[in-house]
Amino acid sequence: MKTFWKVFIVSFIFFFVAIFLGSYSYLKSNEYRLGSNISSKESRIDEESSIEKTTPTIRSYSSLAEAFKDSNRINLILLGMEDIRTDTIIFATFNPKSKQVNTISIPRDTYIHRRGYNQGEQRKINAIYGDHGVEGVKKAVSHILEGVPIHHYIMIDYEGVENIIDSIGGVEVMVPFHMKYEDPTADPPLNIDIKEGKQVLNGKKSLDFLRYRKGNNNQGGYIDGDLGRIKAQQQFLQSFTDKVLTYRLPIVIKKGFDHINTDIKLFEGLAYSRKALGIKRDDFTFITLPGKPELKKVNGKILSYFIFEPSEINKVLEEIYNVK
């Protein structure tokens, strides 16, 4: 439970951080004054976006290879760090024409065997960052997802998460059971105590909810382990998306700006911001990587892995990319 959350911006946030990061940094560095000129430009963009939204032309493809080559989708990964391991990996993809945002949560225990890395723990995807950095994780995720291109990455630290949640007045979730866990050695120390039931969680409680896996001495926790935690995170993000779309997004992003690490450049962010106009709640989907948990014996040690299913992943991607 010594997880140090560096990301939570999933699905919706993957995109809005991308688009407003560039916009906000540009305004911040150049100290723009919002006036009638900007308002008129925004009005024209809104009008153009409305037309584009009502009459989208969605291209179909004959294969995933063709789709990956010719599609204008924007793809990225979101990483949550536990020291040198990726505790959370999420693939997110945005279609600028349809405004559709799809996310795939990738369990940290996903089995992937790299040549020369033969120990049991080294065969989990969460170990790749420590050896190969962000580029290594991007390659691994692309390999699992049939070679899909990955254009960017985003990280956000725990303070940024708290600031964003508090800036919108908390998030309502259904807590499935009493979550209680203590670890004074964690950095920062953990003291999770969230009662069962429907409630609004502030920034601190939201972090606790997202980080929780099981109680002390392996008591309690999710019946299906990390997959249960992923489902809880997705429930949280659905609720978060519903609420945050009612706020002025640049203000929300501003609260987490200093805590974000990304390779998205200024002009990329500015370009994405125009494409995002008109997006709404129904444009988001959240799924978990197709596969199943399995015990494997490696070098005499039995470990729990998540075994992904390529044929099912192929079907998911063909649906996302409109392959006929």
UniProtKB/TrEMBL annotation:
Alphabetized UniProt keyword annotations: Membrane, Transmembrane, Transmembrane helix
Membrane-traversing stretches: 7-27
Keyword Transmembrane helix part of the UniProt annotation: yes
Annotated ranges, domain Cell envelope-related transcriptional attenuator: 85-244
Keyword Transcription recorded: no
Entries under NCBIfam families matching the protein: lytR_cpsA_psr (TIGR00350)
UniProt family annotation: Belongs to the LytR/CpsA/Psr (LCP) family.
Protein name: Cell envelope-related transcriptional attenuator
Organism: [Clostridium] ultunense Esp
